[in-house]
Amino acid sequence: MALKTVTKLFGVDDAKLFPVTEDSEDKFTCGTGIDLPGVRQISLTYEIEEKSLTGDEKVLEVSNKIKSVTFNIEYAKLSLEVLAQLTGGTYTTTGSDDTETGKFTFGGGDLPNYFQLKAQILDTSNDGGDVHFCIYKAKATAIPINGVQDDFATLTFDGKGVYTEHEFGEEGSKQTKLLDIEIHAKAQDLAATVDNGSV
After folding, report:
1. What average pLDDT does range 119-147 have in this prediction?
2. Ramachandran class of 198: left when φ > 0, alpha when ψ lies in -120 to 50, beta otherwise
3. What pTM does this model have?
4. Are 56 and 62 in contact (CB under 8 A)?
5. SS3 assignment, position 59
6. Within 10 Å of residue 26's Cβ, how many Cβ atoms?
7. Which residues are registered as beta bridge partners of 70?
8. Mean pLDDT for the stretch of residues 151-163
9. What residues contact 10, with CB distance under 8 A and at least 6 apart?
10. How many other CB atoms are found less than 10 A from the CB of residue 108?
11. How does DSSP assign 94-158, residue by residue?
12. Residue 19 has what pLDDT?
């Protein structure tokens, strides 16, 4: 059966952050993925810069360009590893057994890190398929923790995705990347999209 390229989306089933380790002319690489535990929702917005040419008391032409993408994610469980990636802070453990302690620390010299964001929605229109969203290079812009009386606290963060410096693709058709949306005939695990320069 042919892959359907139109599908309905329902919920979000998985999301991971992959630390960007290099974005250069030669390569684009990422570290090991960090799971967003209990991902609940994701929303994406293209940020469009628009210019209007006016004359004769009317708009003659409109020029616009997608400059970046903004996003918001909500997830259900606190992860010190996620906080460390988003903020540039550190996550450490000390002790063992009953004395073991996990600690997230943020200091004056720490800066947020770039990450690649991948999200998966299982696709009921393609039997056994899924949809992957990939923001190639992003940083968090706000990281609230939302506690509500008599209910579970949830965690959210806002972020902005920017174009990569690295150009992906074959010679003659290389381009920087901002966002990919892929529909797969068969569901695939989330993995970083990289280019190590060997191709």
Report:
1. 88
2. alpha
3. 0.90
4. no
5. strand
6. 11
7. 45, 160
8. 92
9. 121, 124
10. 4
11. ES-GGG-EEEEE--TT--PPPEEEEEEEEESSSTTEEEEEEEEEEEEEE--EE--TTS--EEEEE
12. 97
